UniProtKB/TrEMBL annotation:
It comes from the Bacteria. It comes from Microbacterium memoriense. The chain crosses the membrane at residues 158-180. This is Copper resistance protein CopC. The lineage of its organism: Bacteria, Bacillati, Actinomycetota, Actinomycetes, Micrococcales. SUPFAM superfamilies: E set domains.
Length: 188
């Protein structure tokens, strides 16, 4: 009778190991998911690559989540094709919408460089451009960088996706091996 109890004990350990492997896999996915949750630009007016007849009084950027409204957390730089600033005051944040007043006139490519703090607390930034007037006569412009060190998070999404897929695959492979071992012991 002691052999039956002794033999059941390794099965319990195997089951516990399988359960532990599943918990570790879920934890890995849970840890990787928040890093992937940065808010992103989902719309802009004027839109990326748009052609407008005249410089609008403002640009409106729409993000996938509510941005954090902290001092100096939101910056927008708008420049004309020659690099002159078109920014006309402080940006206004309202939930998922960021409005930047504009001033002056422009002809040619207008560059918009933005930096915000995502709802998960991480800074995200990006840039886009649109054209004012006839694009055939638009002069080439220069970009004006934001003050301070660059805070580009663009491209990191792909890295997190790869890490997430690798973690899930590794967890799944580990669970499959543990289940196969447990079945082999039961059959053997």
């Amino acid at each position: 009778m002691s052999q039956g109890i002794h033999k059941a004990h390794p099965r319990r350990r195997s089951g516990i190991r399988s359960l532990l492997a599943v918990i570790v896999a879920i934890a890995l996915v849970g840890v990787a998911s928040p890093a992937f949750a940065h808010d992103e630009l989902v719309g802009a007016a004027p839109a990326t690559g748009a052609q407008v007849d005249a410089l609008p009084p403002e640009i409106v950027l729409t993000f996938s989540g509510v941005l954090l409204d902290e001092p100096a957390a939101t910056e927008v730089v708008v420049t004309d094709a020659g690099g002159a600033s078109l920014t006309g005051g402080d940006p206004v944040l309202d939930g998922t919408k960021l409005t930047q007043p504009l001033t002056g006139t422009a002809s040619g490519v207008v560059s918009v460089i933005w930096r915000v703090v995502s709802s998960d607390g991480h800074p995200v930034s990006g840039e886009y451009s649109f054209t004012v007037g006839d694009p055939a006569v638009a002069p080439l412009g220069t970009e004006t960088p934001l003050p301070g060190p660059p805070m580009s998070d663009t491209g990191m999404g792909a890295v997190w996706i790869v890490l997430l897929v690798a973690a899930v695959a590794l967890g799944g492979a580990l669970v499959a091996v543990l289940i196969a071992r447990a079945r082999g012991r039961r059959e053997g």
